[in-house]
Amino acid sequence: MLSIPSCTVVPQQVPSDAGIAGAGVLLSSTITAGLALIMSASLVFQEFMRSPRSKSNPSTIRRKLINGYSDQQIMVGIGIQSVGLVKTSTLVPYHFFIIWMLSLLSMATHNATLLTLVRDFQRDRVLRWLRQLLMFVNLALSCVYGVFVLQSKIKGLPNTLPIGCVWAADAVVPEPGSDEKSMSAGGLDYVGTIVTIAGNVVVFVLATWYLQSSMQRWFKTVQLVGLVLMAGIAIGAAVRVFLLSQAFGNPDVTLSDQGEKSWSFGQLLSMLMLILPVVSAIEIMRGEIKVPPPLEEDIQPLFDGQMEDSPKVVNRF
Prior knowledge:
single chain; mainly alpha; globular
């Protein structure tokens, strides 16, 4: 997996990768992020519209579900980026960029859940600093991805070569037929990539301040504005992925097959995993109901007095 990429021969086509850009993978990631954003928005708007004199509604079920989504999104972002970096010797820029966009989607969704659950994290110092560590790891991986993408734009890496070839400058062969129009489009890509990296750093700094600060001034306003901003980033990343993918749009590389459009076992499994939040909601609802007392046979002593007649063992030491 950590082999040296072959950068001397530029292939005309590359195989598809349904595990990264398959229809089921993209839909399940987007739907999961959408559910987390909708529930976070419902809680934020509920708190924003609630009168100070009204009784507080804990919204236990939604908060527990959002907490689960928050953990899932931050771990998904770290996981897919780590796997992508390990496979830089085989992943082409097309798949590498989709991984980066999916990680931005998960990071924006996690930040939206963080805005909703910030007071819960502030009650526990261990959970707060653990969350901070995971956010930093996710940011570092995202910046590394941005550097890879920026290098591929600067060096004019052919779309069919592995992304790891950006560090083999002598072996990279420029794509034939490049003209001034394509170079001007590349200039826009440079700016967009740099702005994305800088935006991730700024969002991380603001999220760190918001998570660690004990003085929550304009708490509701910060929640509302931050949620709108994170929703915009998530929607932008999702739209970019769908427009670029083979399953729903037009990829910028020639693929040798239509594997990303087919609904294989892995794609169907990704969609079936969307049922888990429904099961979790039912379990949480059942947990909120008072549990009945144990049955009579459950409260009987284990030995039922049989040990009382046994001789006692005297300790002679």
